[in-house]
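Worked Example 4.2. Consider the chain below.
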Amino acid sequence: MSRIPQYKPGDFKPILDIDWEEKSAVKKELNEFFIEPLHILKDAKTPSQPHRKTVNDFVFIRKGSIEKMVCSSLFGVEEGMIMMLPPHKIRTFIHNSPDMEGFYCHFSNEFIAEGPGLKYLQEILNYADIIYDPTLFLDQEHRERIFVILQQMEELYRHNQGLDLIRLYLFTVLGEIRHFIEKLPRPDLSANEALVFRFRKLITNQIQNLHSVKEYADLLSVSPNHLNKSIKNATGKTASEIINEALLMEAKALLSLPHLSVSEIAFTLGVDDVSYFSRFFKKHSGMSPSDYRKGIDLS
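Applying the procedure from the previous section yields the following structure tokens:
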């Protein structure tokens, strides 16, 4: 069963109506690495449609702010903050302030495969998963060092100086973020929080195959009742609500792809009854799948 296609960097234009490839036409490594000052987003068409990418990306905010929805949670990224996301996370760019300054950067796992980069990246992403927050508010020391390094990376990239030195700078950025995280109090997860963490990880990988609380409870070796109580105590939401939020985000992302019919989308999501899928979507979004499609730009 196919999952939502992820955008390659060369195909990013529909996301915010920005031609990233044209901006970097002289740089053949666009799918491996890209960095750009955030002022490029001032003319972006927002909000974007829910989407995934084939690369890791991060935004570093020097001034102003942006809002992004990751899966079904809304996050603000403000001055002194950084947000890093791996490829599999569904994200939606909601809004940015007119005075926004900073950097956007993306890179593939292969680009940092030789060296300490992947290890640093995994530690950063694991920490973000545990606290269920992809944003970090950096202290003054780390934000200033990271800003200087990003300036150097962007200048080297803009002048097409090759990627070997840039890769070393990227290792340093990831190392700075990891160093900052190491100074933070380590989350001491309760049993409920640990179960929530495992539950959310499973949903990310299984939402197109599994839709019931019992199916997830079986994989987690707990009873459905115990899973529901634990999720409710830790998040304030039921397990079913979290499953439905994830399923709705998948549906919205698929509906932004014009070549898929509503029935094909329902099948991709593991729903055999198209009318049931339509009722589910309207109940949780307030509109039918067809009406949702009419309200978004599929060009």
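The first helix runs from residue 13 to 16. The chain has twelve helices and eight strands. Compare this with Example 4.1 before moving on.
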